[in-house]
TrEMBL record, chain A:
PANTHER family with a match to the protein in the record: DUF742 DOMAIN-CONTAINING PROTEIN (PTHR36221)
InterPro entries per UniProt: DUF742 (IPR007995)
Superkingdom: Bacteria
Pfam family, one: DUF742
Name under which the protein is recorded: DUF742 domain-containing protein
Automatic annotation (TrEMBL), chain B:
Record lineage: Bacteria, Bacillati, Actinomycetota, Actinomycetes, Kitasatosporales
Name of protein: ATP-binding protein
Gene3D superfamilies attached to this UniProt entry: P-loop containing nucleotide triphosphate hydrolases (3.40.50.300)
Segments traversing the membrane: none
Record keywords, A-Z: ATP-binding, GTP-binding, Hydrolase, Nucleotide-binding
Amino acid sequence: MTTPGEEQAVSSGFIRSYVITGGRGLPDAEGLSLVTLVTIAPDRQQPPNPSPEVRAIWELCSGGYLSVAEVAGHLELPVGVARLLLNDLADQGHLMRRKAPPPAQLVDRKILEEVLHGLHVRFG
Amino acid sequence: MDYTSGSAENIYVPDAVQRAAKILVVGHFAVGKTTLIGTLSEITPLRTEERMTQASAHIDDLRGAPDKVTTTVALDFGRLTLSDELVLYLFGTPGQQRFVELWEDMARGSLGALLLVDPARLADTFPVIDLVETYGLEYAVAVNSFDPYSRHAEDELREALDLLPDTPVVYCDARDEKSSAQALIHLVQHLLARVA
């Protein structure tokens, strides 16, 4: 990853998002943050006649936990669109999530100590 | 698509992991954010996009790509599993003022920010520092310098960037794993000192 094109737009157009979401507005970050870890709950049946995007999320997220950002990245969806589709699956009871860390003001020592320890172990 | 077998890497977070933490890698255009994330990430770094609802009036720093007006911004990110229970995500976050909406979203829940600086383009870092401070993010400065002869003396750089005395400044090579990890470790040590 040495290309400097860091801020270039990726691909998808507005119209594509509009179609995928059925024209609904995108939800804000409440509930599902970029790093909320999600997976499809075991023994759930895929909703009938899923859209290609919902089917893709289902297949991807049935294999284990991924962050919301990773789901978006793997499926090449804008974060907002992935979040909306995951919210739908959560509302239907299909999605399990790990709790997200507290907001920055409440960052506790314990998480930072764990991060520091982990970095030392990993990189010596 | 089959995501569980046949590929070189397992893309999933280990089953026992309960929590995900987030650190931002911030800096001006082309300073090396993506490189540093790629150097440290255990997964092939991913790219997604966030859509801005406001169109920007002008694009001032996509040099060599004039008239490319867009209201989406690419986010590159990577992942590090740090214990049985914890993963860390590193998000590259562009430093332009016109991305304030994105920053609100990115800053929420972040432990802090590693501010990458190109010593040859110090002025480009000012708006990024403004954003970091606006959102109340604790940060450490990592000078991404491949050439030791172009390195500013640390106090010169501190003065130019108007840094607080306790803001860490560390030199790193974003292409080098040890060096990049060391920069991240300095940041986390600083964050710990701030909550003590």
